[in-house]
Write a structure and sequence with these properties.
mainly alpha, 222 residues, 4 strands, single chain, two-stranded antiparallel ribbon, 56% helix
Length: 222
C-alpha cells in the first residue's frame, strides 16, 4: 500500500503566503535556518525513534504517545510553543521527500529535512497511528494525520488566523490537489487540520492543553 503524502514544506509556504500575517512566511523561512530548529527537530526524531514504545492498536496508548511527542518538543525547545509545534511537524513526517507535479517542470523531487534512511524507517515505525476510533487498521493507520494536526496548529499559532476556522485546512487541501500531491480533497485530512487549528488556538490563548485534548474529542470522519 502506498504511504499517504504528509504536510510538506511547499504547503507550509503556500499557506503562510495566503492565510495569515504578511510577515508569517518570512518568519517561517527564517526559523528553518536557525540552528535551534534543526537541533530540536533532530533530538525529537531521536526521541521518537529510541524512546517511544512500539506501536499498539490501543487508542489510549497512541494518544499518550502523541502527547509525549509534543511535551518532549516543548522540553527541547525551552517551552517555546512555536518552535515546539514546528519541530513536531517535521519530526512526524512519514516520508523523506515529496514529488509534486508543477506546470512546465513536471514532477519535481523536493527533499524534506535530512535524516539517515535507517533512522527514518525506525522513527516512522514508532509514529502513533491508531489514535482515532476509526483509524484504518492497515499498517499506516492515521500516521499521516499527525503532520496535518501539528502543521495546522503551528500555522494557526503563528498567523493568528481566527475568523475562518476551516480556512487553513481547506487552503492546504486545495494546494495538495493543485500540486498533485493528492488526487482529491480528503475530508479526513480537513478534519485533522481543523483539530490542529483548535489546538493552536488554545495554545495562543495560553491554555494548558495537550494534543489528546483535541484528538480524543471526535471521530475524524465526521
Amino acid at each position: 500500500m502506498r504511504l499517504p503524502l504528509p504536510r510538506t514544506l511547499v504547503l507550509f509556504l503556500l499557506l503562510t503566503s495566503l492565510a495569515g500575517r504578511a510577515d508569517a512566511q518570512v518568519d517561517f523561512i527564517g526559523k528553518l535556518f536557525e540552528p535551534k530548529i534543526f537541533r530540536v527537530t533532530n533530538d525529537l526524531r531521536a526521541y521518537i525513534r529510541n524512546d517511544l514504545q512500539p506501536v499498539t492498536h490501543d487508542r489510549q496508548d497512541e494518544l499518550r504517545d502523541v502527547d509525549l511527542i509534543f511535551m518532549k518538543a516543548m522540553d527541547l525547545s525551552g517551552k517555546e510553543i512555536s518552535t515546539a509545534l514546528l519541530a513536531s511537524s517535521f519530526a512526524v513526517l512519514n516520508r523523506t521527500d515529496i514529488r509534486p507535479s508543477l506546470p512546465l517542470l513536471g514532477v519535481v523531487i523536493l527533499p524534506l529535512p535530512a535524516e539517515d534512511s535507517v533512522d527514518s524507517r525506525e522513527r516512522i515505525a514508532k509514529l502513533p497511528r491508531y489514535f482515532f476510533p476509526d483509524s484504518p487498521p492497515d499498517k499506516w493507520g492515521d500516521s499521516d494525520k499527525l503532520v496535518h494536526f501539528f502543521g495546522s496548529a503551528y500555522l494557526t499559532y503563528e498567523t493568528g488566523t481566527r475568523k475562518l476556522p476551516d480556512a487553513i485546512g481547506k487552503l492546504i487541501e486545495n494546494g495538495e490537489v493543485a500540486l498533485k500531491l493528492d488526487s482529491v480533497t480528503d475530508p479526513r485530512d480537513v478534519f485533522a487540520n481543523r483539530l490542529g487549528q483548535q489546538f493552536g488556538y488554545a495554545l495562543s490563548d495560553g491554555r494548558d492543553v495537550v494534543p489528546s485534548d483535541f484528538l480524543s474529542a471526535k471521530f475524524i470522519k465526521k
